[in-house]
Structures are given as structure tokens and as C-alpha cells.
């Protein structure tokens, strides 16, 4: 009994740290390190049927984790974050947002600016992916999230990009910065120039890592709306970034190193394949996430969403907020097919036609980003004075789709089969033409 009481007391001390123990080091970017609750009680088995990120990768939740997640899931996103945004990559449309124009500390999400500059320099030939980089004392001495590089280590630009994106290595991104620009100061100028080129007017970069610079009491910052633009432009120019950000873990047996991707919903929300996380005392817990919902036959087209949550108090809050934002986005929105080209819109009468009713069809499918329950208004316009004969595929009108009085899509209306004119000779012509058409289809 005494032993049980000791276990319970220890557990109550641990609970305030939640499942993802947070590193409270004001001088370090603890960027997203995730740890499970120490299992002081052997009953805390991982068998609760939902997946969570831990310091040993994705695992099933234990009871303590499940209880906390269920508790936070009852709260609105505004209680879990200081700002959030859900946007469509293709159109640039912001679907949902909260406090998106307030300037915020970025922490390690600002490594997206750094990696943008690195990819620019690879593109223009300044550096190459296979370049060998020697680690100096400054790089090896950096705090916070780390690839655990030591002075004198040699590695490639490719490996450093991977380490910067997957485990948020401050040493890795700084090594890249110095390889590109000679000094971090020179690289920071490149970062600010890149932000200016992208039109990010509120952006302000002080280092490649996102760590707070306590000597000058300053840090990397921009608005959440600008972070959406940054992520969209990076994906537009360098979609290969996703080949790094979707990596589950980095293992280097020679250095006895293993660490897992900092993205809390990678491997949990199936569509997710990026992008970058961050944490400092100034920023709180944040993540810029992205993922793609694949097309389903002709019913939908591929849809890539970008979801940003900023300023969460802890890893629990960030996990629940980012998971909900992205899951709900994929469930509620889609690039939905507009209209149907296989089923007739209706039938019409055409003067001098052999048939009383002629089926008409929408010529081409359209696609629009819509909520699943969103209804569109249809307006069909048929040309006047239609007279047979009319060749198959001929446009005989237009169909238009409106959302809240705004035109979303329009298509020609056609007849798929030839409309034959009346008369005994024309009836024979029709029989022979249909015979040849069927022979061609059979062939």
C-alpha cells in the first residue's frame, strides 16, 4: 500500500508536464521535443487506440495522454492557440483564420526562410547537395534542438538539409548558413532579402535558427498570414522540400544517433507530409503543417492544404489544435467536380428533328474548392432557333454555376449524338451512319 501511494504521488508531480515534456530553457529552442510520461505506474500501458508522437516515434496513447487529449478536444481552437490559419495551396485562399495579421515570434518555423535561401543557392550553382561541410566550433556549440554535430565532423549539404527539416537541428541550419554565406550575419541579410522579395513586409530575421537572441532581445518574426505565403512559395519553387519533411526519423549508427521528426501529426494524419515546427519561450509551440488529399476518380482533384497554429502553451495543445485543423480541413473541403458530363442535363425539342426529345450534356467538368455541403446555383441557357441537322459535339448553349451570386464555373452544352433532320432519306442515312459508328466502337 505504501509503495502504491509513492507511485501515485510521483504521478501527480509528473502530470503538469503532460505527455510531451517541455524543455524550460530560456536560452534554447526546445523545438518540439516530444517525450512520453515516465511510466511510474505499470498500468500506464500504450493500448488506447489513438496514436500520439513520443520520443520513440508514433505510439498508441496511454490513459493519462488519452484523458488530457479528450479534455483539450472540447476546447475551441482559439483557446488552444494564439493564432491559426487554414489555407488552400493551389488558390492561395484562406479558408479559416484567427489573429492572422498579428506579428508573432516564429522560432524554428523560420528555418523555412533559411532553407529557401539554401535551395536558391543550390539552384544558382553556388553550392551543391553533395558538397562536404566541416563543422566548426560555433556550430558545434549551439543549444536547443540539435543534430549533435561535433567540431571537426564532416557531412554533406544534403544531410544538413535533412537534419534541419526533420529534427530541427540548429547546428545543421547554421552550418548550411555559413557554407552558403561565409558568416551567419551575411546569411541573415540573405534571409531578410528573401522575405522582401516575397513581399513579407512584417518579416524580420535575426538568425538562421529561430532562437531568441537575448543579447539584443530580438527574434525572427512575421504574421501568420505571411507564414502561409512563405510556405506556399517554398512549395511552389521547391516541392522537393517534401522529400525531406516527410522523413520519419534520422538514424546515424556511426554516431549512435537517432531522433524522430518533430512534426507532431506526421504519421498520424495520413495526408501530412510537412512542413516545420518551432518552440521558444517567445513563440510558444507552433507548427506550419501541410498535406495533400488525393483525387477520387473524377469526383475530386488533388487538394493541398497548409495549416498553421501558433502560440500553443504546450505540446498537448499544439497536437490537438494542429490535428483538428488539418483533419477537419481534409474532411470539410475538396476540389469538387462541378456538373456531370456522363448524365444528360435534360432533353429538349429541336425543330425538324427526327426525335421528339434530344438529350443535352455538359461538355467539360469543372472543379472548385468547396465545403462538402455547399450548394451551387445552376443557370442553363439554350441557343434559340436550333434546327436539325446538328453534328455530334456541337455546342448548343451554356451552363453556369454560381456561389453566392459569384460565377464559379461555366461550360458549353453539347449534343453528344448527331441530331438528324426529318425525311425518309435522312432516316436511311441515320441507319447506315449508326451501323458504321457501332462497327467502329466494336473495333
TrEMBL record:
The keyword DNA-binding does not apply. Residues 1-21 form the signal peptide. GO terms for molecular function: carboxypeptidase activity. It comes from the Bacteria. Keywords: Carboxypeptidase, Hydrolase, Protease, Signal. Residues 333-421 form the Peptidase S11 D-Ala-D-Ala carboxypeptidase A C-terminal domain. This is D-alanyl-D-alanine carboxypeptidase. The lineage of its organism: Bacteria, Bacillati, Bacillota, Tissierellia, Tissierellales.
Amino acid at each position: 500500500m505504501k509503495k502504491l501511494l509513492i507511485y501515485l504521488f510521483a504521478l501527480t508531480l509528473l502530470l503538469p508536464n503532460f505527455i510531451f515534456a517541455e524543455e524550460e530553457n530560456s536560452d534554447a529552442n526546445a523545438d518540439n521535443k516530444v517525450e512520453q510520461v515516465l511510466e511510474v505506474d505499470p498500468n500506464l500501458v500504450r493500448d488506447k487506440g489513438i496514436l500520439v508522437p513520443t520520443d520513440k516515434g508514433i505510439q498508441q496513447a496511454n490513459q493519462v495522454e488519452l484523458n488530457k487529449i479528450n479534455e483539450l478536444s472540447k476546447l475551441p481552437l482559439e483557446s488552444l492557440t494564439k493564432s491559426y490559419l487554414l489555407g488552400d495551396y493551389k488558390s492561395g485562399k484562406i479558408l479559416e483564420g484567427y489573429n492572422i495579421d498579428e506579428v508573432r515570434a516564429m522560432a524554428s518555423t523560420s528555418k523555412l526562410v533559411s532553407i529557401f535561401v539554401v535551395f536558391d543557392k543550390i539552384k544558382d550553382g553556388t553550392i551543391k547537395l553533395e558538397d562536404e561541410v566541416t563543422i566548426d566550433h560555433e556550430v558545434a556549440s549551439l543549444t536547443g534542438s540539435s543534430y549533435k554535430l561535433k567540431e571537426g565532423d564532416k557531412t554533406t549539404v544534403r544531410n544538413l538539409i535533412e537534419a534541419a527539416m526533420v529534427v530541427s537541428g540548429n547546428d545543421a541550419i547554421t552550418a548550411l548558413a555559413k557554407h552558403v554565406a561565409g558568416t551567419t550575419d551575411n546569411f541573415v541579410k540573405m534571409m531578410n532579402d528573401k522575405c522582401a522579395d516575397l513581399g513579407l513586409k512584417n518579416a524580420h530575421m535575426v538568425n538562421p535558427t529561430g532562437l531568441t537572441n537575448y543579447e539584443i532581445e530580438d527574434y525572427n518574426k512575421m504574421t501568420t498570414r505571411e507564414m502561409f505565403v512563405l510556405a506556399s512559395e517554398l512549395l511552389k519553387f521547391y516541392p522537393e522540400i517534401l522529400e525531406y519533411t516527410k522523413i520519419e526519423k534520422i538514424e546515424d549508427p556511426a554516431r549512435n544517433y537517432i531522433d524522430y521528426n518533430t512534426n507532431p501529426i506526421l504519421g498520424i494524419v495520413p495526408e501530412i507530409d510537412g512542413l516545420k515546427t518551432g518552440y521558444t519561450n517567445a513563440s510558444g509551440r507552433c507548427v506550419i503543417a501541410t498535406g495533400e488529399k488525393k483525387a477520387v476518380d473524377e469526383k475530386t482533384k488533388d487538394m493541398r492544404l497548409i495549416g498553421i497554429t501558433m502560440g500553443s502553451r504546450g505540446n498537448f495543445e499544439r497536437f490537438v489544435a494542429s490535428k483538428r485543423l488539418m483533419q477537419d480541413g481534409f474532411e470539410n473541403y475538396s476540389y469538387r467536380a462541378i456538373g456531370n458530363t456522363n448524365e444528360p442535363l435534360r432533353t429538349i425539342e429541336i425543330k425538324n428533328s427526327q426525335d421528339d426529345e434530344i438529350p443535352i450534356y455538359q461538355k467539360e467538368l469543372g472543379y472548385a474548392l468547396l465545403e462538402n455541403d455547399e450548394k451551387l446555383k445552376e443557370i442553363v441557357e439554350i441557343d434559340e432557333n436550333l434546327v436539325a441537322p446538328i453534328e455530334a459535339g456541337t455546342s448548343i448553349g451554356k451552363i453556369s454555376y454560381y456561389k453566392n451570386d459569384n460565377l464559379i464555373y461555366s461550360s458549353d452544352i453539347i449534343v453528344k449524338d448527331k441530331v438528324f433532320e426529318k425525311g425518309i432519306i435522312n432516316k436511311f442515312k441515320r441507319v447506315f451512319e449508326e451501323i458504321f459508328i457501332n462497327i467502329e466502337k466494336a473495333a
